[in-house]
């Protein structure tokens, strides 16, 4: 950290595969105007960063063709790294990142479709200004939601007392949820630690809508329902 870096030092990786354990061909689900989730994410990113810095990582020819048709780069990933639960997640991360020729990696998922282009740009700038500062205590960055909610573990509350000393929501302790929309870390550290976050990531806060993560079909339907809200607040 500390070396002066610019936006063109960031490689934005979009890891995708055709298979999905919960929703069939999830990355090809329609979203936006006659687009798939993958095309939607590519077009969001192209609004804030050069297309040659966007790399689709996949083993699928169909997804490679989408990358080509949208004038972004692609990286052919080993099939082993794209099959359900065969490779460990750290193997997948290193397999995706090793061929990316940029010092800073931005790992972006297509399953968080409502994170706005301006939020990506602001996050990229925060990384360069804050995380990359030579005196920074942060080593990486991720997108988070701030939760002020009443949370329970299996048998008891996690962040408040469920008795006469009940805490009002505004006074609950800060708990953060990673949205899965964006992770940023330098390539050298990713390959060394075999993970895309360090021990002290900068918490880049986004709103609840920007944090919708499509895991189940109801999440997808929720994202579709929020599409008009997204357009009004882009």
Keywords:
234 residues, alpha/beta, Spore Coat Polysaccharide Biosynthesis Protein SpsA, Chain A, seven-stranded mixed β-sheet, globular
What does the model show?
By secondary structure, the protein is of the alpha/beta class. Helices cover 28% and strands 21% of the residues. It contains seven helices and nine strands, in the order βββαβαβαβαββαβαα. The protein has a seven-stranded mixed beta sheet with strand order 5-4-1-6-8-7-9. Strands 2-3 form a two-stranded antiparallel ribbon. The chain is globular and about 60 Å long. The chain starts with 9 loop residues before the first strand and ends with a helix.
With strands numbered from the N-terminus, the spatial order across the biggest sheet is: 5-4-1-6-8-7-9
**CATH architectural arrangement:** Alpha-Beta Complex
Rg is 18 Å
Number of strands: 9
Helix and strand string, N-terminal first? EEEHEHEHEHEEHEHH
Q: How many individual helices?
A: 7
Could you tell me how far the N terminus lies from the C terminus, measured between alpha carbons in angstroms? Answer: 32 Å
Uncertain segments: none
Helix amount: 25-40%
Compute the number of structural domains.
1
The CATH superfamily bears the name Spore Coat Polysaccharide Biosynthesis Protein SpsA, Chain A
The CATH class turns out to be: Alpha Beta
CATH topology: Spore Coat Polysaccharide Biosynthesis Protein SpsA, Chain A
Global shape? globular
Largest sheet: 7 strands, mixed
Query: For the residues shown, what is the average pLDDT?
Result: 94
The amount of beta strand, in percent, is 15-25%
């Amino acid at each position: 950290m500390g070396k002066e870096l610019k936006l063109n030092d960031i490689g934005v990786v979009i890891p995708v595969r055709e298979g999905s354990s919960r929703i069939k061909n999830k990355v090809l689900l329609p979203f936006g105007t006659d687009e798939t989730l993958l095309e939607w994410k590519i077009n969001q990113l192209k609004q804030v960063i050069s297309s040659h810095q966007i790399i689709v990582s996949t083993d699928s020819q169909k997804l490679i063709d989408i990358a080509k048709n949208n004038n972004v780069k692609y990286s052919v990933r080993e099939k082993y790294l794209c099959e359900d639960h065969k490779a460990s997640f750290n193997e997948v991360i290193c397999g995706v990142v090793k061929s990316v020729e940029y010092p800073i990696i931005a790992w972006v998922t297509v399953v968080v479709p409502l994170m706005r282009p301006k939020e990506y740009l602001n996050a990229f700038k925060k990384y360069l200004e804050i995380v990359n500062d030579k005196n920074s205590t942060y080593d990486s960055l991720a997108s988070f939601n701030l939760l002020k909610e009443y949370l329970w573990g299996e048998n008891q509350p996690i962040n408040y007392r469920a008795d006469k000393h009940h805490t009002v929501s505004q006074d609950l302790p800060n708990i953060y949820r990673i949205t899965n929309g964006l992770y940023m870390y330098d390539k050298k550290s990713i390959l060394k630690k075999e993970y895309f976050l360090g021990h002290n990531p900068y918490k880049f806060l986004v709103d609840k809508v920007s944090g919708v993560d499509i895991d189940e079909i109801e999440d997808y339907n929720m994202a579709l329902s929020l599409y008009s809200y997204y357009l009004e607040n882009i």
